[in-house]
Write a structure and sequence with these properties.
By secondary structure, the chain is an alpha/beta fold. The chain has helices spanning 35-39, 41-48, 66-77, 111-119, 149-156, 164-178, 194-209, 211-220, 237-247, 288-312, 317-321, 324-338, 350-361, 370-374, 377-384, 386-394, 400-412, 432-438, 461-476, 479-484, and strands spanning 26-31, 56-61, 82-87, 93-98, 101-106, 125-128, 184-187, 226-229, 255-258, 262-266, 282-284. The chain has 20 helices and 11 strands.
């Protein structure tokens, strides 16, 4: 087990903290201590604690159950230490011990302790990784969902909250009553304009609880937008054993991540912030262009690669990107269809970014599953491809490559690859009627699916015909035959 007491026995090349963890004070409360947080925000904070020791992190878990209790017990047993193994596509690895997390609280076990921390003037930032769907926004209305049973419980019992919204708003109420400054509410979840989404969610809850309190929060707290990026796979028991064997550590909480990491953060803080620029964070006034680059290049090419890769029987992304035909198609898609209509942020080379994306995809240590990347393809197509499709249609440009991606998606949904093996896709958005369109023998039927709704207002008959043509080729001759028909 990895503890403060055994740090002196850790051998090179494992990197130890360059500060004394016992000297660190907490300045941040973080909700959702998952692998991404531990490899991203905590990793960045760890880099600045030597010179800014007042920015340690108190981690908070919100869920009940045996798994959550075991996780909390492990953090306490290890003095909240853990190892992070960073893996490059070349196979090179480095291991460091992270000590930025200075306590871990399981909220259902000790809710008042969590509220004490949120009320403490030393806490100046409350951050979160609660997943993209964790903000409780109603997809139909676009507003905070007050009908959620847990939200209703928090509104009726505000001093004994269950949700992150209840905890944060009660913490801010106590600060207001005590004359303490509000804190910054900082989303680190992978969604566009995450700060704006967080603002809508927390103010939506606060307004339902107390309009005057909501007004005070709106005037005094801030919600910076951020673009976050780092591939951080799940660590199974076998992976954990392999990581410990390689590092020589006995760590019950190891994390593994790619060597790439990026954090672009709107400089909008209510009560001070650490100098994270020293750790590589990019502070900007607007993250929008950075979000567009990530969505339209990295995320868009991820599914452009994975849909046909599944049909070819590739289980992992690194296998798929080593297929010359698939890789060339992604390069052509980015170079000819995406980059010409994409605004590059200051000092960002889109060609260099493309090469970085392809290099990251090739990293075998990530073992990212193509089926995972392709999951919920309906939503991903709408988010990742829409602007490119619209630009191509409005500019009367060649749509062959995006048509291939659409055709591969529709064929992938049928659940059988070129080797005759079956697999299960994850499309929670599709109804029984839409599933019938997926499995119809009519090649045009799938084009009625909602994945393609975002450009129905445009003339797209040529695009539709190309999708039908490529579906026929994929079905009868295979993915590679269809790729061979695309312009080079």
């Amino acid at each position: 087990m990895l503890t403060l007491e055994c740090l002196g026995n850790v051998k090179s090349p494992v990197h130890l903290p360059d500060y004394n963890p016992l000297d660190i004070k907490a300045g941040i409360v973080h909700f959702g201590v998952g692998n991404f947080f531990r490899a991203h925000e905590a990793f960045y904070i760890d880099k600045i604690l030597k010179t800014e020791p007042d920015w340690g992190i108190i981690g908070v878990g919100l869920t009940k159950g045996d798994h959550s209790s075991k996780k909390a017990a492990l953090f306490h047993a290890q003095d909240c230490l853990y190892s992070l193994t960073e893996c490059a596509p070349t196979g090179e690895r480095s291991v460091r011990i992270i000590a930025a997390l200075r306590d871990y609280l399981l909220a259902p076990q000790n809710p008042q302790k969590v509220l004490e921390h949120l009320s403490n003037p030393d806490i100046r930032i409350v951050s979160m990784t609660i997943t993209e769907g964790g903000y409780n926004i109603n997809e139909t209305t676009g507003m905070f969902d007050l009908s959620n049973p847990d939200v209703q419980s928090d509104l009726q019992n505000p001093e004994n909250p269950q949700t992150v919204f209840g905890y944060v708003v009660e913490g801010l109420r106590r600060r207001r009553a005590a004359g303490t400054k509000a804190f910054t509410i900082m989303s680190c979840d992978n969604l566009r304009h995450n700060g704006d989404v967080a603002r809508k969610a927390f103010l939506g809850f606060a307004q339902a609880r107390d309009p005057e309190l909501a007004d005070w929060i709106a005037r005094n707290a801030t919600f910076p937008n951020a673009m976050v990026d780092r591939i951080t796979p799940t660590v199974t028991a076998d992976i954990a054993k392999a990581l410990n064997t390689a590092s020589g550590l006995e760590d019950d909480l190891p994390v593994v991540a790619e060597d790439f990491h990026q954090w672009v953060l709107e400089d909008n803080f209510a009560n001070g912030r650490p100098d994270l620029a020293k750790a590589g964070v990019q502070f900007v006034t607007d993250v929008t262009d950075y979000e567009h680059v990530k969505i339209r290049m990295l995320n868009a090419s991820h599914i452009m690669l994975s849909f046909p890769a599944i049909l070819l029987g590739y289980a992992h992304v690194d296998q798929a990107v080593k297929d010359a035909a698939l890789k060339q198609n992604v390069e052509n898609f980015l170079t000819r269809d995406v980059i010409p209509t994409l605004k590059a942020p200051p000092s960002v080379s889109l060609q260099h970014y493309m090469q970085s994306v392809l290099s990251r995809f090739s990293n075998p240590a990530m073992a990212d599953q193509t089926l995972r990347i392709a999951s919920d393809g309906c939503a991903k197509i709408q988010v990742f491809w829409t602007q490119t499709v619209r630009d191509l249609l409005l500019g009367h440009k060649d749509c062959s490559r995006i048509a291939f991606g659409m055709a591969a998606y529709l064929e992938m949904l049928r659940g059988i690859n070129a080797q005759g093996q079956t697999y299960t896709t994850s499309e929670p958005a599709y109804t029984a009627e839409q599933e019938a369109l997926v499995h119809s023998d009519d090649y045009a039927a799938g084009l009625k699916l909602p994945a393609f709704d975002a450009w129905r207002d445009l003339e797209s008959s040529a695009l539709d015909q190309k999708v039908i043509e490529l579906r026929k080729i994929i079905r009868t001759q295979g993915v590679l035959a269809a790729l061979a028909t695309l312009p080079t």
